[in-house]
Amino acid sequence: MRIHFVHPKFLGDGLLQEEHDFLHRLFDALSDGGKEKMDHPDLFRFQGRRGQLYIRHRQIAEEMGIRGMPHETVLDRRDIEPGEWSDIQIDPQEVFADATEVGSGPPGRVPLPESREPEDFTCSGDFCSVIPGKVDLEILRGLWRIYRHVVMERSYARYRSLIDPVQGRGRGSVWMLFDVMMEEAFAQAPEEKGPGIAYETIWEFLSEEASDPERVEYQRLAAALEPGKVSLDMRRFLAAVANRQGNTDLTVSALLKPYLE
Description:
Layout lengths: L12 H18 L10 H5 L4 H18 L24 H12 L15 H4 L14 H18 L1 H11 L7 H13 L7 H13 L5 H12 L8 H14 L2 H4 L10
């Protein structure tokens, strides 16, 4: 096992889970007081770059959430030094080697591209809720616009608690508070009413222009919801309706956008 350079959306479920578990072992080995000693090339690759592991972990956690896979672990970024966020130089051949390895196993959520451009495999432009360093309030609000429904699906109380940092209220570095709370949110199982509240909130913005068949389908999916359980079918449905209506405020949501890929 190793840390791959291709985006987590291309990994099969088993490989995604294996890389996640390995990443925690690697992060622990690289941190002060790490109990596990490893002899692995990634130990040297990520020496002094734990910030890059933190970003990769968040990408994996987000992908696990998109697939409805359980995720219960966090990484503590508060002892990561400012200099540990520097990028790792990636050899394109390593990217293609990763793609070959990934392609030999079960398919991921998104098929591997046929391109020979490394950027199409790493997908560095994809959304990621990590904030590596201090950012201005508008960037923070932009991230909140993308991820607010993800947090709401897990916990409405947590959603409410994040509003203050996004509005610039609170003490200390609000970007750090936001990031730490997002890390915790991605490791939180949905509360009993969280998914229903999130889906109903989104539907309120769509219902007026929805067709009669769409209203019937929403009611069917809402009636099938189980307390504390995410519904991939409901996410896909809401994404399709938002896309048909051209509601760009909702299609950018990380709760819906992945199902339009």
